[in-house]
Write a structure and sequence with these properties.
Helix content is 49%, strand content 19%. Helix 5 (78-84) runs antiparallel to helix 7, helix 7 runs antiparallel to helix 9 and helix 7 (142-151) runs parallel beside helix 10 (176-186). The longest helix has 14 residues, at 158-171. The strands form 3 sheets. A 3-stranded antiparallel β-sheet has the order 1-3-2. A 3-stranded mixed β-sheet has the order 4-5-6. By secondary structure, it is of the alpha+beta class. It has 2 domains: 4-53; 62-199, Beta Polymerase, domain 2 (2-Layer Sandwich).
C-alpha cells in the first residue's frame, strides 16, 4: 500500500504538470514527503522550487510553464509571444515577459528573462490565457503582440516586426480591426500604416 503523502502528491500532479513547492506545502505536503517522492522517482525537480512527475513529458512551451509558475504576474510578450503564435522564424534564447512599471524584476537561475515595462493600459490589453501542461499561462494575443513589436521595434529589430506583420495579415485575415485597436493602445498607428500599405 502506497503511503498517504505519495497518494496525495500523485492526485495533485494529475491536475497540473508542474507545481511549486509552496503550492504543495499549502496542500499539506511536507518537505520530507516531497524529498521522499524525489528520492523514490515519483517526482523530479525541474527548477528551484518547481517539481513535475517523473513521467511528465514536457511540451515545446515547457519553459513558459516554469516562468508562469515562478513569476505569476508576467505576461509573455514580444519575441516569446511571436514564437508562441508562430509569427516569427526567430528562436529567442531569452524569455520575454511584460511587467508593470513598478513591479520588482524577478531573478531566476533559469531561464534567462528579458523584462519589458508596460504602462497599466498596455499591460492589461490583449491578454489571453492558455493551458499548457495543465498550467495557465498568460500571453498577449497575436494582434497585440504585433502592435507591441512596433512599439519596441528598436529592441526586437524592424526586420522581425515586418515579418510578424506579414505573417499576421496572412494568418489572421479578419484581424485588421483588432490590430488597429491595439495599435491605438500602443500609439503606433502612424508608424505601422506605411508597412500595412506596403504589404496590402
Amino acid at each position: 500500500m502506497e503511503p498517504t503523502g505519495k497518494q496525495q502528491v500523485r492526485r495533485l500532479f494529475a491536475k497540473q504538470g508542474v507545481l511549486r513547492s509552496r503550492e504543495l506545502e499549502a496542500q499539506g505536503i511536507t518537505r520530507a514527503v516531497l524529498a521522499r517522492c524525489v528520492e523514490d522517482g515519483v517526482l523530479v525537480r525541474v527548477a528551484r522550487g518547481l517539481y513535475a512527475r517523473a513521467d511528465h513529458t514536457p511540451s515545446e512551451n515547457h519553459v513558459l510553464v516554469q516562468v508562469a509558475k515562478r513569476v505569476p504576474d508576467a505576461v509573455f510578450c514580444l519575441l516569446t509571444a511571436l514564437r508562441f503564435h508562430d509569427l516569427t522564424t526567430q528562436s529567442p534564447h531569452e524569455v520575454w515577459i511584460a511587467l508593470a512599471e513598478s513591479a520588482r524584476k524577478p531573478h531566476l537561475d533559469y531561464p534567462k528573462l528579458r523584462v519589458a515595462r508596460f504602462s497599466r493600459a498596455a499591460l492589461a490589453a490583449g491578454v489571453e490565457q492558455h493551458r499548457v501542461e495543465g498550467v495557465t499561462i498568460r500571453v498577449y494575443s497575436a494582434a497585440k503582440t504585433v502592435a507591441d513589436c512596433f512599439k519596441y521595434r528598436n529592441k526586437v529589430g524592424i526586420d522581425v516586426v515586418v515579418e510578424a506583420l506579414r505573417d499576421f495579415t496572412r494568418k489572421h485575415r479578419g484581424g485588421a480591426n483588432e490590430l488597429a485597436r491595439h495599435a491605438r493602445v500602443c500609439r503606433v498607428t502612424r508608424v505601422m500604416q506605411p508597412y500595412l500599405d506596403a504589404i496590402a
